[in-house]
Design brief:
Length: 70
């Protein structure tokens, strides 16, 4: 089933995207310096990961537990 039709899979993809964009921005900041266009979407995901990092971490941890146990 596609990640678009399964809410649990959709949340997993979104959390992994936010975490990946944040990691890339911390390691290679020049890659995500454009704030508009298609690359702007990844800049915004990295910004969410930077500003809401405790909540994103809790979301990743709880998503990992739910994948393992359910």
């Amino acid at each position: 089933m596609s990640a678009l039709f399964n809410f649990h899979s959709f949340l997993t993809v979104v959390l992994l995207g936010i975490c990946t964009c944040t990691y890339i921005k911390m390691q290679f900041p020049a890659i995500l310096e454009h704030r508009t266009g298609f690359r702007g979407f990844f800049w915004k995901a990295a910004r969410i990961g930077e500003r809401l990092s405790p909540w994103v971490a809790v979301g990743c941890f709880s998503m990992g537990l739910s994948i393992i146990f359910f």
